[in-house]
Amino acid sequence: MRSDAAIVVLTGAGISAESGIPTFRGEDGLWETEDGGAYRIEDVCTPEAFRRDPALVHHFYDGRRRALRTVSPNPAHQALARLDRDWPGDLLIVTQNVDDLHERAGATRLLHMHGALRSAWCAACDARMPWEGDLGDAPACPSCGAGGRLRPDIVWFGEMPYEMERIEAALAAADLFVSIGTSGAVYPAAGFVRMAAACGARTLELNLDPSAGSAWFDEVRSGPAGLLVPAWVEEVLGR
Ligand code: OAD
Q1: N or C: which end of the chain has fewer CB within 10 A?
Q2: Is 99 in the pocket of ligand 1 (CB under 6 A)?
C-alpha cells in the first residue's frame, strides 16, 4: 500500500471486549441488568425512554461511566494509536463506542459517532462538557446553572449520529476501509463498507465472528481484535 493512502477505520464494541467491557449483542451483553434481568433497548436508549423514566436511563449510563474506571486499553487500541502516530497518510478512526479507550491509548485522529460516556449535554443551554461523575442525582449544569437538565451525550436510537458529513467525506476519499469488532447491525455505520467500496476503497473486516455485513468486504479475517489488529497495523506500517 502506498504511504500516502487514506485509511478509514470503523470500530465497535468488539474492540473493547478484551478490556472487559461487554459488547451489546454478546451473551453477557450490555443489555443484561445487575440482577440477571435484561434492559430493553427501548427502555434505556431512546429519547422517549429518557422522557418517560430519566432515573432508569441515568442509572444505566451512570453504571457504564463508573465501569470505565476499572478498564484499560488493550493491544488493539494501542495498535491503532500507533497507526495514528506513525501513518503518514490521512487516517480517520470512527468509533461507535462511547468508552474512551481509543483516546486513553493515545489516538487523536478519532471521532465518536455515537457520543461519549464521559460527556454530558445540557438540554437547557445546549452546552456539552466533560463529565466524570453521575448524572442521576440531577446536578446543575455548570454552564447555565439549570438543574436536572443534563443528559448523557450519547446518540440514542432515532437520533442522528455525530459528524456524518466528515465521515462521508473521509469514506469517499478512502483507499482502505477497515471495520473492527462491530456486528454490522446498526445503521448508518453498517452501511459504511458499501459507501467506501462504491468510491473505490479496498475493504477489510477484522472481527471475532462473521458480521451481518461480512459478504460486502473484499477480505475478512476472523479472530480476537487483540491479536488481529496489532498484526494488521504491523503489516501496514512495515509495508
Ligand atoms: P455489537 O455488540 O453489536 O457487536 C460486537 C461485535 O464484536 C460482534 O460482531 C462480535 O462478534 C465482535 N467481537 C466480540 N468480541 C470480539 C473480540 N475480542 N475481537 C473482535 N471482535 C469481537 O456491538 P456494535 O457493533 O458496536 O449504539 O454495536 C453497534 C451499536 O449498537 C453501538 O454503538 C450501540 C448499540 O446500539 C449506541 O449506543 C447508539
Answers
A1: C
A2: no
Q: What percent of the chain has pLDDT over 90?
A: 87
Q: First vs last Cα of the chain: how many Å apart?
A: 7
CA atoms of 44 and 221, how far apart (whole Å): 33
Question: Where would I find the H helices in 53-128?
Answer: 54-67, 75-86, 101-105
**How many A from CA of 144 to the centre of ligand 1?**
36
pTM for the full predicted model: 0.95
Element (H, E) at 47: helix 47-52
Give the type of residue at 199: C
Cβ of residue 75 lying under 6 Å from some atom of ligand 1: no
| C-alpha cell read off for 82 | 500507533
Q: Kindly give the pairing relationship between strand 91-95 and strand 110-112.
A: parallel
88 DSSP 8-state letter = -
Beta-carbon contacts of residue 191 (< 8 Å; ≥ 6 apart): none
Q: Let me know: does 158 contact 47? Beta carbons within 8 Å.
A: yes
The response to whether residue 137 sits with its C-beta less than 6 Å from ligand 1 reads no
The whole-number pLDDT of residue 43 equals 80
Separation of 183 CA from ligand 1 center, angstroms?
Answer: 5
pLDDT digits (tens, 9 = 90+) for 92-132: 999 999 999 999 999 999 999 999 999 999 999 999 999 99
Rounded to 10 degrees, the C-alpha dihedral 11/206/188/201 comes to: 110
Residues marked active site are found at 114
Mean pLDDT, to the nearest integer, of 20-35? 75
